[in-house]
Fold each of these.
Amino acid sequence: MFGMICFRSESPRLKGCIKTRPSDFQVTEINLSGKDAVLSSPDKHVSTSETLHIIPLQQDRNIVKEDQYTSLDSHQDTRKLVPITKDHKNSSVLLTSVLEDDIYKNIQDYAETQRARINKSAPPKLDETDRISPLSLGIFHEKKQRTQLYSAVKRQFPHLHAVVDNDHEMKISVDDMYLTFRSLLSEEDSDNLLRFVSRREVNEKLDLDHMACKSVRTDVHRLIHRHYGSLIESKTFTRDTDGISKSWIQLRIKEKSRGQKRKSDHTKDKIFYSGFTLWKNNLETLDAIQIIARAIRVQPSDISYAGIKDKRAITMQFMAVNQPLHRVSNLLNDLAAAQRSVKVGNLHSRTGPITTGELWGNRFRLIVRNVVLKDVETTTNCCLSCRESNLKEDLVRRIERLKRDGFINYFGKQRFGELCQTPSGSLTADVGLAMLQKDYKRAVDLILSPDSDKDDLVNKAKRIFKETHDCRAALKVMPHYKVRECAILRALHRHGIEQEGCCKALLGIPHRMRQLYIHSFTSLLWNHMVTQRILDHGFDVIPGDLITTEAGKVTKTEVKIASPEDLSDKLTYSIKNVVLPLPGNMVKYPENRTGEAYLQLFKTYGLESCQFRLNSLQLNVPGDYRRLIETPLEFQWSLFREDGNVSRCSEFNRGQSETKDVEDSHEAEINAGRWRRNSEESLTPREAQRPQDDSNEKRPSALKDGSLEICKCGIDISEADLNMEISFKLPSSTYATTLLRELIED
């Protein structure tokens, strides 16, 4: 599944149950200083973290935007038109001061002639036979003068535009953009719109009246967003006056976003961000971010984090929001008191967002339940003591081999989302492939494709869209918490469901999520290439492989092509030094059969000419390198049995009443920073408090003929289950489930 076929060891794996409960899978992030994420607050606030870059806070940025947008929704008649008359006077003075009188007169005659030709047809247009050759204004070598003339022509004659050739000669002709808007708007509204765009004064507003037809308003909105989407906001307003409904479109110039570049040195000591630790239980990371964003009244994109964690797990991770501490501390504390599945703590000030470079890796504490040897002959007719002894002997050998040889560093199933009926088996990866193929319509259709075996509100809304393409009807059914789907449906309603509208819809979802789709597909390619590499060459290093000499995180500058001279001494390089590239535009590929296999795989998916740069989606995929073999650190384990009053895994009731005490105890254990690290030979405290194996005689197991089932050692067979508790550390982007597949059979 997902390309994961090979194993580091050929020995049979154990049988066991993974992720029976969220508390069985606990993950804690580790920063570059080796400190675990904790919920308890430190003694004092910290203002910096490792390698932080300063990104100044746009004070009250989101609240200001919300207030301004709300003012557009008010029904007060606060509309004001752009002072066109002033524009006329200023532009006329400029043109007469720069141009000679006869040239200015020629411009006026040219403009009147062109306007007459435009207005004589319905809808307004100019055929090639009606067009007049461009009118030359002369040669202007100074850029400032050319800019002023361009603006003056547009403000006085909005249906014309000026262009400059390589010899700095300026010419004017009919503006095709004006003709496009003129086919939908009146002459007055078209003139005002083009002048409005030319002025570009922030927060200036313009009303386009005579908008009674809804289809015309929709076309106008789409045109404005297609050509001026980054500059202008547009919104429809309706008012009932004396029983008569009147609609108009209001335009507003957007505020310029402040760049996230380093400011002057006096900002270095300023605190703009709030850092905190997120604890979540059985919840998606992105859903937890949505909850926090609503609680502190910011956009989800304002919250930064280093990585996405498992859903069915208890996890703790570092996060930051670009708001000062005094604005969010009370809100976050209120959230922690109100939510069971989300808690926050360790609030402190920072000077920048959380980045992936700040994360060393993760600490895992896992419980595998009902662990048995796969070889039935060694477990049949054995008492618990014998089974435990056999299992321990087997585990000692397996874990020593795992710590010595490592495991194949596949991307885990979590990377690809739920298994589905698509060519790759991963909906997320298929969306990424469609994006790389620039088939944005297919990408949107995949995101909005319903599950055939589910009938909840989300899938009902998706079916409505699939069958009718009615975005508004689907939005009425789609739950509001499905932020991604709602954003896509709104964008499709506004921009249409064709290729261009689908591209706009994908731009409406967070940048991090768009990256996630691409990375899911490139990760799937990587898994397939690892399998191909092992099937072709095993675990030997061969010439042409990509290798790195450094331990820890792989950097692009350290990767080189293995030459025969490098491999002359087998002690210098091993399979642990081999890396494979995640496809992108900044990586090199192996110079052997593995490299050829990459090219063949690109061709299979239609990506042989892909540059891994999608300007239309504002995505750049530089690629990366990943070790083929990874090794766990601080690996510790122990075996234990459940208490008599706790149900076995196979009969476990997942109700809240039964799991609350278990989850609360694990939460308290995490908060205190206590991770049980038992040696391979010692018992856990839970085991030490229990009666020894002779207590198993209390529950004899009867055979069908009524006799007792006796082990070869003379003790009756107990029905108690053996569980394994393990803890270890892994570098970032390494999956614990991938390690477990080397030990436990799915």
Amino acid sequence: MEGGHITNEEEGSNDSDSVVSVKHEPNLENQSLNCETNERFGAETYYKMENRKLLMLGGFGLWCIIGGFIMSFYLLPKIVQGEIQKKLELKNGSEMYPMWQKLPIPIIFNAYLFNVTNPKEISNGEKPILKEVGPFCYNLYREKIILDVSSDGNQITYNSTRIFFERHDEGCISTETEVTILNLALMGTVHIMLNLIPDFLSTFEETIPLMFPGIKNVFTTAKAKDILFNGLLLDCSDPDGTLGLVCSNIKGLSPPQVWQLENGRDYKFAALKYMNGTSEGIFRVNSGINSLQLLGNTEEWMGENALKYWQSERCNEISGTDGYIIPPPETKEKIVFFQVDLCRSIELEFEEETTLFNLPARKYITTQKTLSDIEENKCYCIKHKDPETEEESIQCLKSGALNLTPCFTAPVIISWPHFYLADDEYKNYIIGLSPNKTIHENHAYVQTMTGIPLRGYKRAQINMFLIKNEEVSLLNNVSEGLFPILWIEEGTDLPENFRKMLKVTFSLLKIMDIFKPFIILCGFSCLIMAIVLYLKQNNMLCFAKDNQIFDVQDDDKSIHLPPPGYPAIQNPYSNNIEHFNMMNVQRNMNGLGQQFDGVNQFGINRRIAPKPADGFLRQ
């Protein structure tokens, strides 16, 4: 039966002999529903898996962002701070401790003398004409001899020693060179007697030719090595006469620049003798173990926690390091050094951010404020007691000079070289000075993160007032003013092996600095990508229209089909599956692989996508 369920294969045959073939026509409706259900189930599973992947991607991005911020602003700074402290703290095993105890290289020490070119004219009241001679070069070796370490390791007590050796580099001047300078021994003795026993000056006048054989004026000519370290003779060969009385007073009041010879009678004077082969004193400093900000800070000197030279607690305060180790700066405004040779603490103020040896650094300098005659520096003025009336008064110097008489027991005045940053009165008294910021300022280049000094130079000029005095014939007509004698500089660069260590450390830090924002950026990228893909995958917000392949209206409800190549899923809000099946049939009818826009027979606007994956169409 044609088109029926039973067909006779051979016509005219018997019923018993006939072969009957039964053919079951497929139930298209049931097959369509089963296939539809499977497709919906597969699509739902697919979307859940895709959303889970996007959720994991977004979680990873969020973790990178949070972790990056924690690493950047907390974890890495803590790690770096810890490593810096291990390297810097003053204890056995740290990298800085042996260098702090004894520098592996010598410190550069240069001295410059002011040669007096017109001594006769000065004696008659004319302005001094000076010519700088130098440098006279030396290597300075410093060593800290550890005397005690506190039980908790936080304080170290040591004795600081220094010793000089002449250096013969190119550009250095031979110390055999003769130079004419102000006779410091003579002028210093006059100052001391004026302050203590002015009536004794007339007696002293008689002894001057004996103490200084061949003297013609208030100046002396000698070799540089004798002026600086070896010493100039003070002859006391007449112990029973007036000279003996003067020499006995020298013994009782001898400043550190004067020492008695082995014969027990004569003395010598040298401007820098007190520095060579001697101790700067006993220091107690903080090791930085408990607080790196206190690293190297001087807490006591000579058993005292304050000085006794100046007029207030602030000026007598002992604070700051010795300059060869500096704590990592909390702020960049200033750093503080305790300078024994200046008998006070000195502040260096921030000047600029720079680089040195390819390392980031901050430059600190002394400014005019340091030796200025402003109100806050009045405590460095000197109490003067009139020997006749016994009235006390405060004597202050003009800007750019500091009176060290209370500290040195000698009338020594300190300034910066060539009266740099000093009052014009001091500069105008001398002909031949050329103050220059570059070569005359004190400065320190400090590594920004660790505080390690990369380079440092401290400079100072020794002066003495030349004054008239009627009791001393050599001083009757001299021109009066602050007279430069010499200036010195001391400094060095950080040793090469420590510079290499810092460069390696900063190379690692640079890599870490690049890595930190990369992690955060990667996190943001992953998070944004996850959000965008999620919106696109679920046809949300601005992606709904772009990703909508079919938009079939059914009772004001929509059926949305996924991108080409993926199973179809019915809009969960639609109860009408008929349109869904019709669209699949229509898609087959129109042929896959074709792409056009138009209106199909159902009046639906659609875009046919490229051929989907195998197995997508129902047969």
Amino acid sequence: MWRWLEKGSDSENASPSTSGGGAKRSGGDNRDEGKKKYARAFNPKWLAGREWLQYDSDNNLMFCGDCRIYTTPKHQSNNFVVGTNNFKIESVKDHEFARSHIESQSTKQAKATRVEDSVAVKSLLALKSSQIKKMGLLFRNAHAIAKKGRPYTDFTWMCEVDRMKGLEVGETYTNDYQAKVFVHYIAKEERRKMREKLSKSKFISVMSDGSLDSAVMEEEIVFVRSAREGKVSVDFVGVKSVPKPDAISIADAVNFIMTNEISAEWKSKLVALTTDGAAVMTGAKRGVVTRLRADRPHVLGVHCMSHRLELAFSDALKSSPMARKVEDLLSGLYSLYHKSGVHRASLKKCFGELNMTSLMPTRVGGTRWLPHLHKAVDHFLRGYAAFISHLQKCQQDTTLNDGQKARARGFLRIATDGGILKFCCFMSDVLHQLGSLSKTLQRSGLVLSETHSCMSSTLAVLEKYKSRPGPKLRAVLEEDAYEGIILTATNHDYHANTRGALLDALTHCITARFSDMSSTLLRAMRLLDFQYWPESDPTADFGDEELECLVGHFRPLLESAGVNASLILDQWTALKCQLYKEIFERTWPSINRRCRHNFPDVLDVFDCILSIPATTADCERAFSIMKQVKSDWRSSLKTERLNDLLKVQLSSPDIKDFDPCSAIEIWHADCVRSRRPDFVRQEKNVGLERGTESDSLSESDCKSDEME
């Protein structure tokens, strides 16, 4: 007990028999006192071979950098997480072999390892072939459900059908919940492919549009267009609901989709933003394009060419009373036969009596593109005899009331008017030209330079119609009957002037809507179109001015992409000489295959221009698919699930070409607990049916797997 006596105790009071021991203990106390005065310090040699160990000289603490980032919440109070000044090598070694530290090291290694190189994927490769085949069947079923827009609940009975066919699909992972999981990983694999492809592209452009879904929520959809080595590709990126369709909300939604699905640095590659012509999108001060462009003045804002043509045609029709009469007639006939099964059946009977193919009136209003109106006019002219026959029979039909007879009589009077019919033929000729132009402008890979050439040719045809009518109108212009039906006489000069006025209005409206196509920058983009190239050897300065204009506008973007702008003109001259000396297919992919190694910088400029989209028709087509997927019966579909389904429908291969191996690898690796394709739980209740119990059990097991 002597070691606990205070330092100044009197030795005379000690027992004589213990005096020697007391002297020894006194010496021991002096040694303890010396130890207390010694301060331990961190030894830098401990860092050798220990990358995880770090020393904070300001606070005189050592800690584990890996455990601070990757440890579990229950180990957050560990000394090597918060920091310790217990500078002993034994403490360092104890933490090095601690279970919490080993788990943190494993987590760090797993996050740094590619999914394809992870231990889980390597274990997947060691699976039995029967298990891989089983999961392939399940993933193919899930892919087919998403590709065809079927509900997830179909997955269960599809697996049951596979069992009845003798296919081994197992008892686990065969419920509708797991179908959602499989579709998610299929979509995840498609997103990985898209990110990998876009990471190799130096230039991208964004297409965005909005629409209401079945739940009356504003959805903003985003596509991205890229060009690499002359090959243009368009990819669906994502869809997101916006709380309010204003510029701030839409811009935030587009930025969120692009950042999450592609990269946080997506704006550094941005060339153009293509939208519709709404003021909220194209506003010069606070529009979506202006907000996303920010401090990058080289980013172009492109108004969808298909929308421009639609707006130009709509503006021209407003000035033509005869065109409004034709639209009223077609709309009235559609309403007459669409809402009455009796009239529809009688019309089909008239078609049969005349040995004609049944052509029902189609909707005029509410459609987006010009070919729909052309279809309505075409059906009216081709089925004209049957329509007139049925309207005449309505006058003698005793089952119809006076109001119905009067309505049919009014349609009959307008339809047999010679001026109206000839104007319908004239509109058919005009709509055929505008419809062809509209279809061209809706092509996914359309280039801006093609827009100018197609529009010029269409305007030339319309100008010719002023002096020489189109084929439909020429056939009836000098006739008093059509399809055997006598037409009422009309004022030919008046109708001729009406047709000329509509052609003038169309030419004026189209020219006004596409006025920016004559700008210097857009005219310079015609270098992409080989129609503008000379047939023989070009002059020394051919294309130099246009190329200088393009390089001057996109110089910041080109330099950030690693393009040497000072070499572009020299490479352009050499490229022209080589293209005219060698004979091969003049397409940008083939030119890149043969010449990229010699002229990389000038071909990068053309890739930049090729990446500019001229239309948002891809967004419109995606909205049509979205309304089929998120129908009235599935109006509560969440945004995450909607994105997965649209990604599979729009980006994944067809059912016959789908390979599930990559998606299975990601699914197998993305789980802490091991997957159990062959797991079979014993039935506890004898009276319970096999399928019901296995499905319920497998669903709970699968959910626990996903949560872990």
Amino acid sequence: MAISEALSPLIGGSSGGGGTYYVDAAVDFKGRPAIRSRSGGWTSSLFIIGVEVSERIAYYGIVSNLITYLTVSLHQSTAAAAESINLWSGVASLLPLAGAFVADSFLGRYKTILFSSFLYLLGLALLTLSAIFPIGCSDNASSCSSSKFQLVFFYLSLYLVAIAQSGHKPCVQAFGADQFDETDPEEKKSKASFFNWWYFGMCLGTLCSVSAINLIQENVGWGLGFGLPCLSMAMSLVVFLVGTFHYRFKIAEVESPFTRIARVFVAAIRRSKWAEEEMESQIGTSSASHTSFLDRAAVPLRSDFSSPSKKDKWIVCSVAQVEEAKGVLRLIPLWVTCLMYAVTFAQSSTFFTKQGSTMERKIFPGFLVPAATLQSFISISIVVLIPIYDRVLVPVARGVTGITSGITMLQRIGTGMFLSIISMVVAAIVELKRLNVAKDAGLVDLPKATVPMSILWLVPQYLLFGLADVFAMVGLQEFFYDQMPDGLRSMGMALYLSVFGVGNLLSSFLISLVENLSSAGGESWFSNNLNRAHLDYFYWLLAGLSTCGLLAYLLFAKFYTYRIRHPKHFISVTTDTKGSNA
């Protein structure tokens, strides 16, 4: 279906304030122009948030207690288990770059979510099956081991979940944000609020998972503990399908934004090879020397049109295309400086959990709290603080700054990064106290003995992580969605996820490096006997590296220019079999 410029007033309207009958460049599930009052908005986005709640229950039902399963059921060492989890988490967070490319270039978001959900279900079902296999164990507990087949089957199932996530994770949130028309003032304000409530729902699902499923895994069995996440993912798929009748589907642009951006680089490279002298003769030596590499792609030269064979779009580009490519490049320094935030974030599901497993976990007589359950305090703090942030802090800040979201996206991210540093400092102090308590109690050489120190000492560091997430995590989601070109917004969400993917890989690398260096000089910082380990040193190291990352972030953020979006009329757009980003 093609929409000409003559039809754009009918489709877009200009009444403002939510009075527009049709929505610009959007259709309903039957391919008809989307009626504002009957599609999109909060009705559609609530279905999407419901999808995310169920998916997070499934995801964290696997991930939050994975280190316990690896060390207790599969008998891996603490360092090896932490490295395996960080490696898997890194891959799972990097693969969405590929999934987003498929969604933005071929299938569209709706179909990508649908196919990924079925694959997700398959991976979780196989993971459940792997947990049912019996583990060979002799009378001597130290000789317990998992069969090679069980390990291979387990990891194949786990990485199948990672592949499924590659399409599901970047598209669901982008598809949810697509339900709001940013050219409408009221819907634009709602979209800024959507990212807060999206994360609220995401953490609500996480809270349900770590507070209930972890108990079942450690007290009932891993088969049921992995089976419940599979059931939750099935519910996620059902909710997504039910919402189909209410969704808005963005109309795909005729030309892929990947192609537009690639063309700028190709044109710039061509000029760097054979147009230097002509540029100097045509626009002057001084101007040519001060023209940036990408800007040269937009300088029309006489030789570009000297023959019909040179009249192609890969030789010269428009200024708008060049600015679009430069805007994407400007995101890279900020992306890099956020990596240390992701490295610190990775510790909450690995070493924090192992710390808790050594401490007094009897909160009530006869009730042993699983160490992984403390991750629920991250979700609790977020669930409590998000409504306060959205309904109290944002309106107050909006009245002061005049900014729709209260504070800028980069200010929000920087605040979260600072809070994550404070969290690591607190974690280091608490760990030092735990080591001293173990020493005073004579438990240094008794790794399986319970350290007489309540696990509740770990709660402050978890709460600080939650507070940091309210600022940094939501800010990163909104920033990478908002600052990417319209046709690359799935890729924008994938870039946000890749921060944590690379962060997990960096965490795995740091663990391996520190393990080798500290072992060479005596007891490893990550010794299986945590009473002789020095996780506190590692936390101080992360706090120092994060401080360097924050300083670099502040420098790049100071000079960053936000991408300005204007209401636009679509002169030539089309919907095809890929569903218009549907």
